[in-house]
Amino acid sequence: MITHITWHTNGCGTQVAWIKADAKAILAIHEHVITNNGRLSVTHNDYNTWTLVIRSVKMEDRGVYMCQVNTDPMKMQTAFLEVVIPPDIVYEETSGDMMVPEGGSAKLVCKARGYPKPKIIWRREDGREIIARNGTHGKMKATVVEGEMLSLTKVTRSEMGAYMCIASNGVPPSVSKRMKLQVHFHPLIQVPNQLVGAPLGTDVTLICNVEASPKAINYWQRENGEMIISNERYSMNENESSMYAVQMTLVIRKLHKADMGGYKCISKNSIGDAEGTIRLYEMELQKKTKTAHRLNSVEDTSNDEINSTPNVDQPEETNKIHKNGRLYKGLQGSEHDLISSSGATGIVVSAHRGGFGLFQSMPRHLHHRPHQSSTGWSGEAKLLIVLLVHLRQLLARWLLRLVRLTRRKVLQATMAIQFQHPTPSPCSSPILLHSSL
């Protein structure tokens, strides 16, 4: 860097001297440099313009400079040279990458030189908050922390990552140092679905979520200890969601009967190991029976009207119930209702937590339906037996309520009579009043 200090004079034949005021040292007279400093020189552009040139400016060049002219009286002018130095990281005094166990403490140090003295701030490279803990103020979160030292206590895995130390003093450019904090802990496995069902011949995916640091070795096993190898039927993948989190997936294609059973996802690192278990079972596809087909044909009728017998536990008539594409009027339905029906007679029983309801469907196109075979009535007989059992339970509850209500009414009537006509006390006697004229 080169600095120029220029002075303009008005006289001819005068001598100009340059002096470092704080050191009281003469630097140059006219165009002749006196001091033993090769970085200094004096230029004279015309008869009244003089310039002191300082090359490769150093911090020691900072101070007051004086220009004197040997006139009578003597003339002089002063100028202050301020030297600024951009920030620079002192690497030998600055922390590097660090590893701590989970729950431990870490101290990151950043030193910088420059003039004016640089200010140091800390940020996380991913923009997340820095968590600072102390005994008096508890836990504090901030995106920017100021100071040469960043102290982290009770470090968790979420604090793992890169931290940036940035030094600036107003003189460009600012400088930074990247430090990576590694938090070590034993593997942890979470299984979203421990029980998975799928039909034979289909593809199924098993999932395990793993957290581990340092990076773990992950693999799959059958429950008998047989290790699973990738081939045309088994496909294994790992998807990283963070520095320490991985999702393990096992895809089994064209399920066989022999594929059913237990599967283990296992994760191991230098600190420990963990495993999760998933059980795969066969899910049978529902087959349409003759009765189900007949029921569907009845339920697809658009203008059927259904009369309902109200439930004693829930006597009010509520909104319509939609079940299997059919519209039912009657008791309140919910996701826990179980509606069964007979396609031959149109009788529907709705069982739920509050009781049951009886529905009778009378589609117009079934009014003259031919007589069903004996095999068709066997299911209706079972349905009627269930209905009678429910009716008996309903009648018993209704009678019990009636008895309780009757007792309550009798008790209330008795208390009302006693209040209106109190029984005279046996110890009392009539009082006679006499009056005389």
What descriptive keywords fit this protein?
437 residues, 43% strand, mainly beta, single chain, Immunoglobulin-like, 4 domains, 13% helix
What order do the helices and strands come in, and which of them pair?
Elements: E1 2-8, E2 16-20, E3 25-29, E4 32-33, E5 40-46, E6 49-55, E7 63-69, E8 75-81, E9 85-89, E10 98-101, E11 106-109, E12 112-115, E13 119-124, E14 130-134, E15 138-142, E16 145-146, E17 149-152, E18 161-168, E19 175-190, E20 195-198, E21 204-213, E22 217-222, E23 234-240, E24 245-252, E25 261-268, E26 273-282, H1 290-299, E27 306-309, E28 321-323, E29 326-328, E30 338-341, E31 347-352, E32 355-361, H2 374-420
Keywords: Cell membrane, Disulfide bond, Glycoprotein, Immunoglobulin domain, Membrane, Repeat, Signal
Domain Ig-like: 1-77, 87-176, 187-279
InterPro entries: Ig-like_dom, Ig-like_dom_sf, Ig-like_fold, Ig_I-set, Ig_sub, Ig_sub2, Immunoglobulin_dom, Neural/epithelial_adhesion
Give an account of the 3D structure.
Residues 290-376 and 425-437 have low confidence and may be disordered. This protein folds into 4 domains: 2-83, Immunoglobulin-like (Sandwich), CATH 2.60.40.10; 87-184, Sandwich (Immunoglobulin-like), CATH 2.60.40.10; 191-282, Immunoglobulins (Immunoglobulin-like), CATH 2.60.40.10; 290-369 and 377-390, no CATH class. By secondary structure, it is mainly beta. Strands 10, 13, 16, 18, 19, 21, 23 and 24 form an 8-stranded mixed beta sheet that branches. A 5-stranded antiparallel beta sheet has the order 4-3-2-7-8, with no helix packed on it. Strand 28 (321-323) and strand 29 form a beta hairpin. The chain contains 2 helices and 32 strands. It has helices spanning 290-299, 374-420; strands at residues 2-8, 16-20, 25-29, 32-33, 40-46, 49-55, 63-69, 75-81, 85-89, 98-101, 106-109, 112-115, 119-124, 130-134, 138-142, 145-146, 149-152, 161-168, 175-190, 195-198, 204-213, 217-222, 234-240, 245-252, 261-268, 273-282, 306-309, 321-323, 326-328, 338-341, 347-352, 355-361.
